[in-house]
């Protein structure tokens, strides 16, 4: 039972929790304690040292917006942001409730009355912006993967195709996504015309920018992975005379999956970094815009709030990476050792 | 096609020794005639095999032995259809070989099991394709289980390759090949990567299966004892480049063969020493 738990923890990348389970199971306490110290204790000490250096260092730096905030001030701002979010929520709830009551009353007086439902249009809070950014990065990332994986597989299977598109890939890969941004913005506003748009234009622009730069790692990794599949496995397929589709889905893709995932992981990481920059530059909703707005705002709280955003961006990036690693160890055949 | 024409030609030219069979056997089940192959290299074409001819009867167990790099795998791969001969060709059961197919199933040296499939699924992948439309679901399942049982792997059939030993993986590889019901079973150093005990164990299994099914088998090997123990016929190849069949030794020891009893058998030791003297006197590896 606890072995299973340990397996799960290892699959999920939560290695630090393993000694805890072992301790609970009554394994050699000294060994587990030293394990716990290296896996949990040391990182904790590093964080504490960092916080100390930060709070001492920050107090020395005077900016036009006041002293650079230390950990305590940043924590205070984080709490503030949460409170603001709660307040907005309550306001929105109250708005919808009033609207509902009003409409119900209207219907009671006259069942045929025309009813209007309006959305609450409050200022998006910090947490709304997190949601927007996450949605955007996933949309862009999924779009990129849907293009990059099939194209990558095709390139891996056909050296000619790979040779043909390789120069394009080499040229577009190093382009900073921010250089794309103006073009994408113009193209989206020219092409995406709709009276009742399902998505906002800014959302599409950001998502497409993420797509454009997270295409490449996945595409290249997939192509290389498929091209370098163990020759014996290909020969197995040839001897059995698998048809084309089975060959691709039963042999090529599973064989390439570990490397495809490495590509996806890189792509998602790049996409997340790019998105924040794109949001700042294009004033598209999301965490980047939050940072930019606070910077423009220039109140004494701004630097603290920006730091909350920076730390949040880091934590989310880390969680996204963790998500991909966990997915990878769940889905591909290269199971972690000891499986 | 041209191969057929060439084959006739070669039959005239071939010295009796390399033509192999006694004239009493009219038509070989598998007939390799005048096979040569050039590999393209940076320094121009490299002739790995030159004029390899070989006849194999139905139900025969044939070993190919020779020094490393002489072209044993290449011969096997040509029969499998994985390589295309530059000249000459192989005819199996009256039909020319020009592409791979399940009637010439291959057991690969390092098992070549797909690690993302269980043992059962590995065999299933082959069975599903080969018997499509010929067996229903239940028959397929029974056939897969039957073949895994044949190699004594039914107890671990739902394990992944990473969870079983090297010998067990090789067994599953053999089961996969047998499950295709091949006319010829091709094995490229099937036990090369195994320790001596496991190897002996698997050799016994193969002999057992062979007694049961009476397959036609071509096996590439490095191991003289293995060749003598298992084969009806040992094909000894000269050193490359441009390697060819040097000598063919008929091993007419009675079956079933028992490795312990044979160890002190005079004829067994005679066959053994013949192969050894071919390899280490006449085809001594040039100092590299
Ligand atoms: N695809 C290839 N391209 C170029 N040369 C090749 C290729 N395959 C084999 N050769 C060459 O052909 C010769 C025979 O190779 P082969 O693999 O058949 O030898 P082998 O007898 O099976 O050796 P071993 O016992 O080491 O497996 C070697 O010199 C090898 O370098
Ligand atoms: Mg070989």
Write the layout of secondary structure elements.
The complex is a heterodimer of chains A (339) and B (288).
Chain A: H1 2-11, H2 18-24, H3 29-60, E1 62-63, E2 66-67, H4 71-109, H5 126-157, H6 159-172, H7 177-191, H8 201-227, H9 231-240, H10 244-282, H11 287-297, H12 302-331
Chain B: H1 2-13, H2 16-19, E1 30-41, E2 44-56, E3 61-65, H3 72-80, E4 87-92, E5 95-96, E6 106-107, H4 119-130, H5 137-150, H6 166-178, E7 184-188, H7 196-213, E8 216-221, H8 224-230, E9 233-237, E10 245-250, H9 259-263, H10 266-282
The site of magnesium ion has 3 residues of chain B, from α3.
Helix content of chain A: over 70%
Q: What is the number of E strands of chain A? A: 2
- Could you give the order of the helices and strands of chain B? HHEEEHEEEHHHEHEHEEHH
What portion of residues of chain A belong to β-strands?
under 5%
Strand order of the largest sheet of chain A: 1-2
Q: Briefly note the structural class of the backbone of chain B.
A: alpha/beta
> Gap between N and C termini of chain B, in Å?
41 Å
Describe the 3D structure.
The complex is a heterodimer of chains A (339) and B (288). Chain A is mainly α. In chain A, strands 1-2 form a two-stranded antiparallel sheet. Chain A has 2 domains: 1-60, no CATH class; 126-331, MetI-like fold (Orthogonal Bundle), CATH 1.10.3720.10. Helix content of chain A is 78%, strand content 1%. In chain A, helix 5 packs antiparallel against helix 10 (244-282) and helix 11 (287-297) packs antiparallel against helix 12. In chain A, strand 1 (62-63) and strand 2 (66-67) form a beta hairpin. With 288 residues, chain B is an alpha/beta fold. Chain B has helices at residues 2-13, 16-19, 72-80, 119-130, 137-150, 166-178, 196-213, 224-230, 259-263, 266-282, and strands spanning 30-41, 44-56, 61-65, 87-92, 95-96, 106-107, 184-188, 216-221, 233-237, 245-250. In chain B, the strands form 2 sheets. Chain B has a 6-stranded mixed sheet with strand order 6-7-8-3-9-10, with helices on both faces. A 4-stranded antiparallel sheet of chain B has the order 2-1-4-5. In chain B, a hairpin with a 2-residue loop joins strand 4 (87-92) and strand 5. In chain B, helix 4 crosses helix 5 (137-150) and helix 4 runs parallel beside helix 6 (166-178). The structure holds adenosine-5'-triphosphate and magnesium ion. Residues 39, 41, 46, 48, 66, 68-74, 240 of chain B line the site of adenosine-5'-triphosphate (ATP).
């Amino acid at each position: 039972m606890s072995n299973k738990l340990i397996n799960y923890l290892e699959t999920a990348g939560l290695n630090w929790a393993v000694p805890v389970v072992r301790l609970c199971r009554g394994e050699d306490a000294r060994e587990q304690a030293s394990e716990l110290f290296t896996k949990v204790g040391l990182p904790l000490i590093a964080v504490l040292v960092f916080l100390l250096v930060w709070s001492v260092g920050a107090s020395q730096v005077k900016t036009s917006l006041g002293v650079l905030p230390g950990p305590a001030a940043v924590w205070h701002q984080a709490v503030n942001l949460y409170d603001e979010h709660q307040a907005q929520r309550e306001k929105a709830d109250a708005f919808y409730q009033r609207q509902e009551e009003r409409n119900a009353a209207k219907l009671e007086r006259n069942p045929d009355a025309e009813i209007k439902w309006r959305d609450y249009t409050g200022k998006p809070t910090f947490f709304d912006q997190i949601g927007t950014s996450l949605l955007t990065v996933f949309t862009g990332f999924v779009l990129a993967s849907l293009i990059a994986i099939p194209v990558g597989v095709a390139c891996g299977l056909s050296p000619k195709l790979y040779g043909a598109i390789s120069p394009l890939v080499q040229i577009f890969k190093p382009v900073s996504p921010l250089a794309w941004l103006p073009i994408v913005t113009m193209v989206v506003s020219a092409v995406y015309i709709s009276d009742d748009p399902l998505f906002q234009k800014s959302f599409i622009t950001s998502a497409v920018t993420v797509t454009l730069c997270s295409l490449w790692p996945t595409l290249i990794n997939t192509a290389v992975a498929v091209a370098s599949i163990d020759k014996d496995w290909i020969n197995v397929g040839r001897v059995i005379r698998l048809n084309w589709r089975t060959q691709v889905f039963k042999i090529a893709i599973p064989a390439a999956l570990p490397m495809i995932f490495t590509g996806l992981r890189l792509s998602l990481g790049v996409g997340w970094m790019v998105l924040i920059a794109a949001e700042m530059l294009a004033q598209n909703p999301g965490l980047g815009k939050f940072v930019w707005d606070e910077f423009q705002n220039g109140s004494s709280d701004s630097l603290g709030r920006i730091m909350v955003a920076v730390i949040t961006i880091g934590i989310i990036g880390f969680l996204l990476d963790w998500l991909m690693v966990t997915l990878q160890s769940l889905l591909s055949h290269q199971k972690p050792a000891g499986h | 096609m041209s191969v057929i024409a060439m084959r006739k030609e070669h039959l005239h030219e071939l010295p009796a020794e390399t033509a192999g069979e006694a004239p009493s056997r009219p038509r070989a089940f598998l007939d390799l005639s005048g096979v040569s192959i050039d590999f393209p290299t940076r320094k121009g074409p490299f002739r790995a095999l030159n004029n390899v001819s070989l006849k194999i009867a139905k139900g025969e167990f044939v070993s190919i032995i020779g020094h490393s790099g002489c072209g044993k795998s290449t011969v096997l791969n040509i029969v499998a259809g994985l390589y295309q001969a530059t000249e000459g060709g192989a005819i199996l059961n009256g039909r020319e070989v020009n592409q791979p197919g399940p009637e010439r199933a291959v057991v690969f040296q390092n098992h070549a099991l797909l690690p993302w499939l269980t043992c059962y699924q590995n065999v299933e992948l082959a069975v599903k394709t080969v018997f499509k439309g010929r067996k229903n679901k239940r028959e397929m399942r029974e056939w897969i289980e039957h073949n895994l049982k044949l190699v004594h792997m039914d107890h671990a059939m739902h394990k992944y390759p990473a969870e079983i030993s090297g010998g067990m993986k090789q067994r599953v590889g053999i089961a996969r090949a047998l499950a295709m019901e091949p006319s010829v079973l091709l094995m490229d150093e099937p036990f090369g990567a195994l320790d001596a005990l496991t190897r002996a164990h698997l050799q016994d299994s193969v002999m057992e299966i062979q007694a049961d099914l009476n397959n036609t088998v071509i096996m590439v090997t490095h191991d003289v004892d293995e060749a003598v123990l298992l084969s009806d016929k040992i094909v000894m190849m000269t050193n490359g480049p441009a390697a060819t069949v040097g000598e063919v030794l008929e091993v007419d020891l009675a079956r079933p063969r028992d490795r312990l009893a044979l160890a002190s058998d005079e004829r067994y030791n005679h066959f053994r020493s013949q192969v050894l003297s071919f390899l280490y006197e006449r085809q001594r590896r040039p100092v590299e």
